[in-house]
Design brief:
Blueprint: H1 8-25, E1 29-34, E2 39-42, H2 44-50, H3 54-57, H4 70-84, E3 93-99, E4 105-117, E5 120-129, H5 131-153, E6 157-162, E7 167-170, H6 172-178, H7 182-185, H8 190-194, H9 197-213, E8 220-227, E9 233-244, E10 250-259, H10 261-288, H11 290-315, H12 323-351, E11 359-362, H13 363-380, E12 384-388, E13 395-398, H14 400-420, E14 427-434, E15 439-446, H15 453-458, H16 474-484, E16 489-493, E17 499-506
Parallel strand pairs: 12-14
Antiparallel strand pairs: 1-2, 1-5, 3-4, 4-5, 6-7, 6-10, 8-9, 9-10, 11-13, 14-15, 15-17, 16-17
Helix pairs in contact: 11-12, 11-13, 12-13, 13-14, 14-16
Amino acid sequence: MSSSATPASSVTAHAQLELKALLDTAVDAIIIIDDRGRIEQFNPSAERMFGFSAAEAIGQDVAILMPEPHRTRHGDYIARYLRTGEGHVLGIGREVGARRRDGSVFPARVSLGELRTGGSARFVGFVHDLTEAKQAQVDLSEAHRRAQSYLDLAEVILLALDASGRVTMINRKGCEVLGFTESELLGQDWIGRRVQESAREAVRSAFATYLESGDPELHANHETPILARDGRPRHIAWRSSLLLDDAGRVVGTLSSGEDVTERRQAEEEVQRSRDRLTHVSRLSTMGEMAGGLAHEINQPLTAISVYAQAGARLLKGDGSTDTAELATVLEQISAQAIRAGEVIRRLRAMVKRRPTERTTLDCSQLVGELITLAEPDARASDVVLQVNLVDTPLPVHVDVVQIQQVLLNLVRNAIDATVAAADAPRRVEIRTAALADDNVEVSVVDNGCGLPEQASERIFEPFFTTKTTGTGLGLSISRRIVRDHGGRLYCAANEPRGAIFSFTLPLSTEEHP
């Protein structure tokens, strides 16, 4: 009688073939040991990993694959497990050191499992060589260390932000400038936490616009006040570029920044020094003109006194006071008071310290307003001022007081030069002209002694002067003021005698009141 059942021997043979195929094709080392720790199976990957052939390994204690101290203790581990059933590594993976045939030790991850067959215990171990993974980790760590050292050697701030504006990288220089550690800054909302509040909205808008551009060739340059740990702003000049992923999507920005705080402070201090020097120059000019201005103010004050006395006499008369005559007296008092007040107002405007403020006005108006201050000094020196202005409007955008200071300084110099030339006609001319290059020219012409040849080459140098009592700063400061306004100050000889000092100002395209 035939049977359809598969003989037990055939099943066993088939299972053995499957096991051998599994062992032969496994990438990791597979080692099977008995309950005494002797190796029963040692697959090809184990041969390559440990350097033993299967024939050499099978029958050996598995401890030959272990470094000390596990090498001598392994038998105790197995005995304790068989006695107590407590396994410390069964069913879980563990990173250990493994020993090759040549005695070298390498990192490995071992997973152990138990096989129960016929009442006896057997164990299977899967061993994964971690040498390459560990080396890759070491290489990556070393590359990161080198990269960080390069970043830390940079004398500029290096800052990376993700698309939401959070810090993903900052170098040592950045930490030093801000007074924070790297861990304190990483992940922080840079704009919301580190940018000065007054600038946050503008910076956030510019950051979003830059990200939206998506142009990796576009570099953003800007200066931003950044709050350090002490709460004080540091002015940082940034140059930024976009960071893209492999798909070309914008994922953030990388910026290099230079701390320009001290530079800005130095520039502000220089500007303050310039302003103080300019103010001193105005005061010096006003001091030189004090005699003429005092005379000019004294005249309306004397007239006010005379008219007031006349009015008082009219009121004390026989009672038939002529109201029309009294009204005339009062009008004269008012006019003379306005005249004195205008001189004082101009004087105060000239010597008052105030922030730079530019406005657009007609150049002829600018020159005309100056005459109020210049005429008293000219009369005191018996010098006639002639004003020749073009009829058409010449709008300029200037700091009125600064440009009037320049003009007043030139007029004062012209008056002094005219007085110094005893036989010269005492006349100084102020004139304006429109130039072909969209500039306005203002000239002060005198008939004085002129400039020596050597003086004309140095006349604009600081502290150089041809006057016995001059400071040598007036023309130097005047040239700087004119340059700051986009013009130039120069001089030429006036024929047959005297000098012409001229300065130019750009014509303004703005409407002037």
